[in-house]
What we know:
- The structure is a single chain.
- By secondary structure, the protein is mainly alpha-helical.
- The chain has one domain (43-138, 151-274).
- Helix content is 54%, strand content 5%.
- It has helices spanning 4-13, 43-54, 60-64, 96-101, 123-130, 144-147, 150-167, 171-182, 192-197, 200-222, 226-230, 233-256, 263-283, 291-299, and strands at residues 21-23, 30-32, 72-73, 76-77, 84-86, 119-121.
- The strands form three sheets. Strands 1-2 form a two-stranded antiparallel ribbon. A two-stranded antiparallel sheet has the order 3-4. A two-stranded antiparallel sheet has the order 5-6.
- It is globular and about 65 Å long.
- The N and C termini lie far apart (46 Å).
- One of its GO terms (biological process) is protein ubiquitination.
- InterPro entries: HOS1 (IPR044718), Znf_RING/FYVE/PHD (IPR013083).
- One of its GO terms (molecular function) is ubiquitin-protein transferase activity.
- Residues 1-21 are annotated as: Disordered.
- This is RING-type domain-containing protein.
Amino acid sequence: MTNPAENTERNQMNGRVSPSSSIDCGGTAIFMASPFQPNYSSRAVQEALEHLASIDLIELCSEAKVEHCRATRDLRSCGRYVQYVLTSCSHASLCSECSQRCDICPICRIPIPKTGIRLRPRLYYECIESGLISKRCDERFQDKEDADNELTTDVQRLYSLFDVALENNLVSLICHYVTDVCMDESAVSSDPVIAFLLDEVVVKDWCKRTFKNIIAELQGIYSLETEEMKTRSSLLLKLSVHLVGISNVLEVLESTFKDSLSAQLHDLQLLQENILKAKQTSLSGECGIPLQQFIIVVYCCP
């Protein structure tokens, strides 16, 4: 059996900071240090990260969107959550059970092969099954009331994919999502959910939400006694790396508003300033920076 400590050391040697778990089930996301980390030596985790790193960014919205099975059962739609796409056409249109009894895709009518690989997992569910996203994020574990607000769920799922990118040194993916998708005038959709996910405001809100989560985690560290705080030095380093990643995304977002005096630009600049303060605070943690100074950073959070 592989020693978890050896896995952690190997991940650090490879330049990967051991991530905290991201729990986000339709409400405010909370980052917290978790003893249950993904097994980065497992094939499932490696394939999920490869899928994320190589995905056509315009498809990221489709991967995040909640889809329900469109097959007909007893004169009504099946309606189950769709966790796979058809390999024949790449549409997320059928649940795994209905894909076994249907001959064609209900969206494009392309025949489904009777032999070979008929399905491949959608990226979001691939991340869940591999442990990169908490299973508490899965709709199957949510209350029915939460599932009623589908747009919120779609946004939270995209946020979860951004979280995985941030946790695994793939921040450039989010930056390219802004430049290659959000700012691409040809990247349009008649689907209102996809159209909303294509807006750069969604990325800006992810930055603000993630920054506030990091601030909350830093506040928890700074409430500890000095000796116990010193044992969290690796966590402080990880949070600092995350702050740098968010800052990089904000720089790209700011460039999209250049020569503008809009409130959006002012909001981005203020957030960037507060991230710089928080980064300085996290890096100064081992030096015993007074808690009062940290609280100032917290209350400056936009």
